[in-house]
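Appendix B, record 7
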Amino acid sequence: MGRYLLSRLLSSIPTMLAIVTLAFVLLRAAPGGPFDTEKEMLPEVRASIEKAYHLDEPLPVQYLRYLGDLLRGDLGPSFQYPDESVNDLIASGLPVDLTIGGLALLLACLVGIPLGAFAAWKRGGFFDRIAATLSLVGVSIPVYVAAPLFILLFAVTLQWLPAGDWGGGAPRHLVLPVLSLALPYIAYVTRIMRASFMDVLEQPWIRTARAKGLSPRQVLFRHALRPALLPLVAFLGPAVVGAITGSIVVETTFGLKGIGQFFVLGAFNRDYTLVMGVTVLYGALIVIANLTADLCQGLLDPRVRLQ
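Structure tokens (predicted):
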């Protein structure tokens, strides 16, 4: 296991280097710059600003300088937020995305796993059709449609919950963003678990467990659950990153200041260091999530040998 971890971590270094290099080149190749404004800037002022941010240096020198800062954990200053560094901006926005994305995936697993399991157990029955319909609805309704509908129903009409704002992470302020982001993931988890359980329930050891007279609950959760979770674990690897980093619609709708909004604003304003910082964070999260998924698969299935 230790050798496997070491090899995966070492193999992730070229991946991260490729991500950083590609993002650096594409940002510099895009038209415009971080200090281009409608009002023409004096050449002396522009030269002074570019010198302060090392933008007057050749691109290879800028690239090597950025790599050196990155190795020290310094993501650099933000061009559009001069009073804050990229580290500070990410540190302020990441807890919002971690909370919303983590709770959304937790809710998706708590609802989707038992729903998919019982739908597979009652295959072809009324419960299975209900689960399939709910899954289809969840997949079909995008987040940018579900979020305003939830606000209209629960905040405006019923006035049970606030329509937006972070509120210091208070539970009342988290319900609607989490529910909006979790809806499609609940549908995906239900469909994956239903298909996986249907396959596992046809295996010989399940027929043996049934022949022994075990209850349906024991068959499902003692003998079928562990192998049925393997496809879900493979899905959750990229899903974790998607839930954490893909909540820009939720952030905008509910007025949350997460890193998704920083990334979009940084891209529009050509804030090189901010976009690079968020890109590096996303890449690192993908590497960590995929590695964690591989390790979990090895723990769930003894046949998977991580050498």
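Remarks on this record: The chain is about 75% helix and 0% strand. The chain has a mean pLDDT of 82.
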